[in-house]
TrEMBL record:
Taxonomy of the source species: Eukaryota, Sar, Alveolata, Dinophyceae, Suessiales
The keyword Hydrolase belongs to this UniProt entry's keyword annotation: yes
Keywords, alphabetical: Glycosidase, Hydrolase
Name under which the protein is recorded: 4-beta-D-xylan xylohydrolase) (Xylan 1
Keyword field contains Hydrolase: yes
PANTHER family, A to Z: BETA-XYLOSIDASE, BETA-XYLOSIDASE-RELATED
Residue ranges annotated for the Beta-xylosidase C-terminal Concanavalin A-like domain, each copy included: 363-547
A Pfam family this chain is assigned to: Glyco_hydro_43
Organism: Durusdinium trenchii
Length: 553
């Protein structure tokens, strides 16, 4: 299986390291939410159209994160009101909040679904629960009459439970204005009770898209934190305070408390926002947030292949120096200060706690169930794969990579810009059936590296362009076994293959990595792919192992 943790020390062995490298969870893991149980922290992220959904990681040091599982891991959970069967790209599961209370884990989130041939989306807000984060997780408890997106769940000291959501106000002051509301939640019946309270429309005048709220209680005050400014380069974190959970809430005069909008578009990370605050047992505070590495593309428009990732930064608390604010109750309010020395997300920071050992990634498919690292574009069809062994058997499906389609592709997230991905495949083949590996950014943006009819084909699909072959190589000595290798270095993808079990490799194609930049909500995935291109067949490919090693930039 894919062993080890995802973070890595910076400079030297774990015993020598004194700082860590951001992002702490590399790859397409946006919208992080975090909670702690005992000495273990858990993070849950958005997953959009991918299945399984709601990925969960755990850590004891906040730097090295290992897989736990998924909150949505059964087809029955996502084949009804929560729909990942034919969901549109960049819709699906968005902005979860994970919390723990009285022996139960709660994940509250939104599923966005637009019917085919319609731009009108429906937002289904729901909760799944578990006593163990490894599962099983419950079927979705849909919260009726809960408009909008990105809900949070807040457990108050008095025993009341609050749903905190975001929706368009009845009378917006400008296009894109959002409004945060709260409503008491009856967890026995999964229904609202009492009246709805409208809390806040965001901090910055003229700001748009307030979303992703989190409610906290700290030193007797209620804090309402949210994302604002959209998910691009103007993304930010803003905060307000109140003496009551139902408001009124008063904004921090120094909002936003975190952003990159004041930095160069080419800063190493941009679009930072959508944070979640938490405390260490010793009283120190930190925040997890998302960001996009600026690594490829034109100046001012740089992005990465990995998409939006999870970052960690320190937080301190400071009181206002004087009672100079014009609104709200008197007194010197206490506010969080993100990265107090620099005010931004840093690439390297001092370790918050001790560091655990980092390990590499390999899967030889020896267990009865897939490692949680694997994911699919939408719900996979029955019989698509099996682990009866040896190795992974992937059936050729008539479907190819396409919008709203589930095909025989399964992948792991690209973790770093520079990496080496390899896979050993056995494939007898038949006319019109192709099997190999792929790097998939979206349904209309991918690289395939496959064997078909005795030839090796490398093809690139770019958004709004036809798929084109980069290389076609005859394989006269192919005897049914091949090792694929894709290496990313110096801003290029290099494809190579071996017919002698990895002893020697032949390079066959190279392309700029910028052809597969993330322009949506998710990042690229790498993995096996097998298609019969429209025909029904019993053909399959067998993968003995898959390996992924990343270079820390």
């Amino acid at each position: 299986m894919f062993d080890g943790c995802l973070g890595a020390p910076y400079g030297g062995s774990p015993k020598e390291a004194s700082v860590f490298v951001n992002p702490i969870i590399p790859g397409g893991f946006p919208d992080p939410s975090i909670c702690r149980v005992g000495e273990t922290w858990y993070i849950c992220n958005s997953s959009f159209e991918y299945f399984p959904g709601l990925p969960i990681h755990e850590s004891k040091d906040l730097v090295n994160w290992s897989w736990v599982g998924h909150g949505l891991h059964r087809k029955e959970q996502v084949s009804g009101a929560v729909n990942l069967v034919d969901v549109k790209s960049d819709d699906g599961i968005q902005a979860p909040s994970i919390r723990y209370h009285d022996g139960t884990f709660y994940i509250i989130t939104t599923c966005v679904y637009r019917p085919p041939d319609s731009d009108e989306g429906k937002c289904t807000n729901f909760i799944v629960t578990a006593s163990d984060p490894r599962g099983p997780w419950s079927d979705p408890h849909v919260i009726e009459d809960a408009p909008g997106i990105d809900p949070d769940i807040f457990f108050d000291d008095d025993g009341k439970v609050w749903y905190v959501g975001t929706a368009a106000p009845a009378k917006p002051n400008f296009p894109g204005e959002g409004e945060i509301y709260c409503h008491e939640l009856d967890l026995k019946n999964w229904k609202f009770t009492g009246e709805r309270h409208y809390l806040w429309r965001g901090a910055v005048h003229g700001g748009v898209f307030v979303e992703g709220p989190h409610m906290y209680k700290h030193e007797g005050s209620y804090y309402l934190m949210a994302a604002e400014g959209g998910t691009g380069v103007n993304h930010s974190v803003v905060i307000a305070i109140s003496e009551k959970v139902t408001g009124p809430f008063y904004p921090n005069d120094r909002n936003p408390i975190l952003t990159s909008r004041h930095l160069s578009y080419d800063n190493w990370v941009h679009s930072t926002g959508h944070g979640d605050l938490f405390h260490l047992p010793d009283g120190r505070s930190y925040m997890v947030c998302l960001g996009i590495r600026a690594e490829e593309g034109e100046p001012g428009m740089k992005r990465s292949n990995m998409g939006r990732e999870t970052y960690l930064l320190p937080v301190t608390w400071e009181r206002e120096p004087m009672e100079w604010h014009s609104l709200g109750p008197s007194g010197k309010r206490l506010w969080p200060v993100c990265s107090p020395e620099t005010g931004k997300v840093e690439r390297t920071l001092p370790l918050p706690l001790g560091l655990l050992v980092f390990a590499g990634s390999e899967d030889s498919f020896e267990k009865a169930a897939l490692d949680p690292e694997w994911l699919f574009r939408r719900v996979p069809k029955d019989g698509m794969y099996n682990l009866n062994g040896p190795g992974l058997r992937l059936k050729a499906s008539p479907e190819v990579l396409a919008e709203r389609t589930s095909c025989s592709f399964m992948g792991v997230r690209q973790r770093q810009t520079e990496f080496e991905f390899s896979a050993k495949m056995s494939f007898e083949g038949s006319t019109g059936v192709a099997a190999g590996v792929a790097i998939v950014q979206k349904d209309d943006n991918y690289l395939t590296f496959m064997v078909e009819s005795g030839k090796l084909l490398v093809a690139l699909k770019e958004k709004e362009k036809d798929e084109r072959n980069i290389a076609t190589i005859d394989l006269p000595s192919y005897s049914g076994s091949i090792v694929f290798k894709i290496r990313s270095a110096d801003h290029k993808y290099n494809c190579a293959y071996s017919l002698d079990d990895g002893s020697t490799y032949t390079s066959c194609a190279e392309m700029a990595a910028s052809h597969l930049l993330s322009l949506g909500y998710t990042g690229s995935c790498l993995g096996p792919y097998c298609t019969s291109r429209g025909q029904v067949t019993e053909s399959f490919a067998t993968f003995a192992w898959v390996r992924l090693s990343s270079e820390m930039q």
